[in-house]
C-alpha cells in the first residue's frame, strides 16, 4: 500500500517542480501593435497608410490592458510597448512630413489654398462664395485635388478638380458647387487623366452672373501642373 501511494502521488498535478511557471501566450494584440509600428514608416510615402501608426498605438494599449487583466495567461508587455513607441515616433514623423509637403509644396509666386477656404459660410447658399474666396479673385493660387473622370483620357486641356475621389461617375450632382473647380490649361499645356492627386496653379476666378460663358462657380486659368 505504501508503494502504491507513492506512485500515485507522482502523477498528482500539484506535485510540480519548484520554481516552475505556467505557460503564458504572447498577446496577439501586442504582436499586431509591433507589426503596425514597424510598417508605419510607409505612411511617409502613402497617405492612406497614415492609419497604421494609429492602429499600432490602439492595439498596443489594448494589449497592455489585457495583459494586466490576465497576467497568468498572457505576456508580451515589452512587445506592446515597443509597438506603441514605434507607432508614436513614425506618426509624428509621417504627419509632419505630409504637413510640410502640403504647405510648402506651392511653387514660387503662387499662394497655397485649400477647399476649406472655398466653402460657403454657415447658413449661406451652397453657391455663395465666402469672403476668403472672394479675396482670391484674380490672384495666382495653387491647390491640390483630383481630376474628375470624363470621357477624354489624354490630351486634356480642361477638367474639373474635386477634393476627393469618393464620388462615383454618376454622382456629380451630389458634389457641392464650392467643391468643384473648372481648370482651364493655358499656354499650350495638356495633361492626361490620373487617379493621383494633382497640384494646379494659376489665376483664380469666381464666375459671376454676368459671365456669358457657362461654367462652374470657381475657375482657374492654370499655367502650372504638378
SSE layout and pairing:
Layout lengths: L1 H9 L14 E2 L1 H12 L11 H19 L4 E2 L1 H28 L6 E2 L18 H4 L5 E8 L10 E5 L18 E5 L12 E9 L11 E8 L1
Parallel strand pairs: 1-2, 3-4, 6-8
Antiparallel strand pairs: 4-5, 4-7, 5-6, 7-8
3D architecture notes:
The chain is α/β, with parallel strands linked by helices. Helix content is 32%, strand content 18%. The chain contains 5 helices and 8 strands; from the N terminus they run αβααβαβαβββββ. The chain has helices at 2-10, 28-39, 51-69, 77-104, 131-134; strands at residues 25-26, 74-75, 111-112, 140-147, 158-162, 181-185, 198-206, 218-225. The strands form 2 sheets. The chain has a 5-stranded mixed beta barrel. A two-stranded parallel sheet has the order 1-2. Strand 3, helix 5 and strand 4 (140-147) form a beta-alpha-beta unit. Helix 3 packs antiparallel against helix 4 (77-104).
Amino acid at each position: 500500500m505504501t508503494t502504491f501511494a507513492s506512485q500515485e502521488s507522482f502523477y498528482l498535478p500539484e506535485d510540480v517542480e519548484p520554481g516552475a511557471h505556467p505557460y503564458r501566450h504572447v498577446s496577439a494584440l501586442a504582436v499586431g501593435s509591433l507589426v503596425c509600428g514597424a510598417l508605419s514608416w510607409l505612411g511617409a510615402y502613402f497617405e492612406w497608410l497614415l492609419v497604421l501608426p494609429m492602429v499600432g498605438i490602439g492595439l498596443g494599449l489594448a494589449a497592455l490592458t489585457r495583459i494586466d487583466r490576465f497576467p497568468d495567461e498572457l505576456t508580451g508587455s515589452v512587445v506592446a510597448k515597443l509597438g506603441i513607441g514605434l507607432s508614436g515616433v513614425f506618426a509624428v514623423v509621417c504627419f509632419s512630413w505630409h504637413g510640410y509637403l502640403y504647405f510648402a509644396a506651392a511653387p514660387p509666386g503662387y499662394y497655397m489654398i485649400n477647399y476649406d477656404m472655398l466653402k460657403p459660410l454657415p447658413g449661406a447658399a451652397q453657391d455663395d462664395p465666402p469672403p476668403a474666396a472672394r479675396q482670391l479673385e484674380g490672384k495666382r493660387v495653387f491647390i491640390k485635388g483630383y481630376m474628375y473622370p470624363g470621357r477624354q483620357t489624354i490630351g486634356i486641356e480642361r477638367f474639373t478638380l474635386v477634393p476627393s475621389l469618393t464620388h462615383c461617375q454618376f454622382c456629380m450632382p451630389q458634389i457641392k458647387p464650392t467643391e468643384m473647380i473648372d481648370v482651364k490649361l493655358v499656354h499650350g499645356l495638356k495633361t492626361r487623366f490620373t487617379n493621383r492627386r494633382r497640384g494646379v496653379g494659376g489665376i483664380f476666378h469666381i464666375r459671376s452672373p454676368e459671365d456669358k460663358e457657362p461654367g462652374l462657380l470657381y475657375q482657374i486659368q492654370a499655367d502650372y501642373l504638378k
